[in-house]
Amino acid sequence: MVSVRLITINARGLNTPVKRRMALTDARRQGGDVIFLQETHFRADSAPTLSSPHYPSSYVSNYTVSKSRGVAILLGRHVPFVYDSHVTDPGGRFLFLKGTLGLTRCTLVNIYLPNRNQCQSLRTILNKLSRFREGIVICGGDFNVHLDAPGEGNPASCKPDPSLRKRFLQLLHGQQLVDSWRVLHPAGRDFTFFSNAARSYSRLDTFLVSHHGLHLLRSTTIKPITWSDHAPVHLELTLSTVSERDRTWRLNETLLKDTMNRTDIETAITDYFRENLTPDVSLPMVWEAHKCVLRGKLIQIGARLKKFRTGQITDLLRNIYTLETSHKTHGSLDTLKELTLQRATLNDLLTHNTLRSLQITKLKYYTQGDRCGRLLANAVRMATYIPKIRCADGSVAHLTPDISTAFLSYYKTLYNLSDTPPPSKVIDQYLRDSYNSTISEETKEALDTPFTMEELASAVKSMKSGKSPGPDGFTMGYYKTFLSSLGPHFLQAFNSLADHSTIPQSALLATITLIPKPDKDHTLVPNYRPISLINTDVKLFAKLLATRLNPLLPTLIHPDQSGFVTSREARDNTIRTINLIHRAQVQGRPAIFLSVDAEKAFDRVDWHYLFGVLRHMGFGSKWMTWLQALYSSPTAQIRVNGTHSTPFGIRNGTRQGCPLSPLLFVLALEPFMQRIRDNDNIQGFCLPFHHYKISAYADDILFTLTDPLKSLPHVLKELRTFQTLSNFLINDTKCEAMGVGVTSETNRALTDICPFQWTRNSLRYLGTTLTRCPRDLFAANYTPLLNTTLHELRKWHKPHISWLGRINYLKMTVLPKFLYVFQAVPVRIPRAYFQELKSGFLKFIWGSTCPRYHIKI
Predict the structure, then answer these.
(1) How many other β-carbons are positioned within 10 Å of the β-carbon of residue 31?
(2) In whole numbers, what is the pLDDT of the chain averaged over residues?
(3) On the CB side of 276, how many CA atoms lie within 13 Å of its CA?
(4) Could you tell me the pTM of the whole model?
(5) Cα–Cα distance between 518 and 716 in angstroms, integer?
(6) Distance between CA atoms of 444 and 440, rounded to whole angstroms?
(7) Strand 136-142's sheet: what is its strand order?
(8) What's the pLDDT at 803?
(9) Is residue 448 within 8 Å of residue 623, measured between CB atoms?
């Protein structure tokens, strides 16, 4: 159960950037989740952007004639609102927005009524609303009608038209809409607008709520008038179907830019380790506890700075509230003068802060906005909110707790596949029969030497800043800033693991974030890629291990495996396969090309098998102890829509997000690939320097087999054997096989042997389409890429990105796709292709206007 705060306010014009920034900043300061704005004063044909990172979704209804009227609804980025449809008004008087808030079907309405003929205008709006509304109606707005009778709160100086109010309430009664403030304050007296001309207060702004939705009301309050001439009205709804977001701490790296803060933190680090390094406490425990102490120190510094920055505003708001309450009661001119002075002081302060914020933003976007960096990447990043998911029993979950439970059940099963691991003797025998290469004694000794400060400094330098931290909240910036103070203690703690110390369980907790796979059904749990956010110190230690391991891979892993091995690329496999397909056609030999889809390959690796492979390859005891410390008792929690599941244990898999993960996987796969190469019953393409049977890029495996009726059954047998030892599992329905020179009779026999998807003319592998006929490679790969790219460029609309930013957008997101295809499928490309590509790029860069520069390709 969680409360959602809605705010309505008449903004009195938002045409200047300062006013827009001030409104958005104040809405966030007040904790608004959904914001209703009236009098935005945007013209329909030249409306500025009304959004921010905190309010990314905005719906506006602007006047088509002039810069007046106008209403808008802003949705916070964490609001669980699923959009359905909306209706705007050419007159800029109303906006209807329909959707689902949590599981509650609702219609959000924003209304700004004229100063005259209010009831006539409201009747027209409500008639349109009656045909559109669905579920609970929540209507915020400035109605320009005195909502209170004289006996209910209007001051004596205010003489509202009783007939107007009566007709207004009758219209609301006909639609079963209720004034939420009056319902919760039946005897209350408060106002939202002060008329300087009439020297009177009135309540013109409120939230109207459907009568059958009153049980959701938690509170309705009127706040002081500050930067606008109307007071904001807050409405809090209690939604039992919405889960409260989990608050997680993350280091604010701007604190580290201040010299005094850095000095305080460095002193705290030095004092902590001087006072707590005792023989009776293990070094890893001392290291883990230091993060708790420093987290408290950083929170203290952040709170002090926040209090300093907001203290003046808080004091002014408190004074304004006191003076406004007094003036509403007594109407003193002296109080009004003081109140006006306090409001002017607050507006000056807010304007100053807003101008400074805008200046910083402009500088940031001027220096970084058009570069191939984080700002430009954020502009094109997709939202990852999950509105619904299909559970294992076929039902559809809409609530975040139910969605989280569905993911938790799936991954808890995935990361705990077997209670009875395969016997060590069976694994050892399999490895003895499969793999013979081992590392030398000199290499083993080098791997086992303690890590040095030079290695740590190199690892820290190679790690990118700005990445999401693990559950402890410490970012890479913390370790880069205080490396000289932290480095020796880090090395002592993690080097001591070789002496059978253990990493505290809290350090091995990871947060799993879910990235939707492209072109998949995102209502299915398996169609999300789990990325483990590991604590930065643990990731640094894994980076140290990976740095030592990486140079050994070319000697331990056959060239058939091109994934994550130095000087090998995916194009090695695609070019080889294209040549083998052509060779099969030229020779007229029956052959099949089988692309295997491994199901969650990284997440299924059995640890007993993995450690057996590493021991068989000759890795030393210390290096193995360091590695096993990372896999001693890892746990994970799943983050879904801002909430975290309960932590669960992990007993298999290599974490996607760990620097060691891909290296360990290719090592674990190598014995299987060697068995395929050594199996005489499996026939491939025999060339002078190599017998080509299998190739792989990490878990993307391709078999190139001749004599398919004999070879394929033995491949399936090897796959089943490997599965029993390592948990490796292929998804038969997603595997693709293409026959070349295979008769229809042989093809039917092969179909009976295995239920793969048998294709006639093409095969998908490593993001490319490999065709039976080489002449079809261009049409199968280059033409779809061009069409898709041009379609995406036509849809992409970011008006704040300059032409230079658009060029960098092409460099960052579009060109890599073309460069990969150019390398992976090297065929002759006609000149017309580049001309069409150039035309699409120029239209995108110059916004479909005439290019100012002519470039020849």
Answers:
(1) 12
(2) 90
(3) 19
(4) 0.85
(5) 29
(6) 6
(7) 81-88, 94-101, 104-112, 136-142, 205-210, 177-179
(8) 75
(9) yes
